[in-house]
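To illustrate this point, what follows is a protein record of this kind.

___
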Amino acid sequence: MMNYHIRKKKRTRYTMRGVGFAIMLICGSQIVAFFMGYGKSHMVGTIFAFIFCLYGLYLFISSFKSRAYNMDYEFKDDGFIVHTKYSDKNYAYSEITDVNLIIPSNEILYCIIQIYVGKKQFVLPFSLKKVAAEQLYSFLCEKTGIKPFNDLSEDEETTPEENTNDVTEDVE
């Protein structure tokens, strides 16, 4: 059994709420002024204000969603559980459609694991924990039956003569 905790900052949620509310307030005042008869020639600006007002509403509402709070992932033998603020959701390993391990090519010390369950995507960031990310990735690949990217056999690889889409680059 493996556990992983993703910590979200309270300041980020409050900032999103404040920015969303400020955008709605400023754009709402433009819309109200337009309907009260001020600036009848500024209809294009009012349309933009309405669009920005909707964006502010989106920011405000998304700060209350469960992905804005701390999340705990509990990986067991039969499936994994996602603990959020509002609920706990169980997923079986057979529901996972794809698992990706993303390691940057430069020497940045983080990794990302993406887990796809149907249309849902779970992103697990690992800062300074590359070994833990690789262990979890190999565990998920073993449980789901997905072949890890680095374990491709030689018979599946194509030679440059067979693949016409290969791009070669001369390095001096």
Q: What stands out?
A: The chain is about 35% helix and 25% strand. The mean pLDDT is 81. The longest strand covers residues 110-117. Strands lie at 2-6, 71-75, 79-83, 88-92, 96-102, 110-117, 120-127.
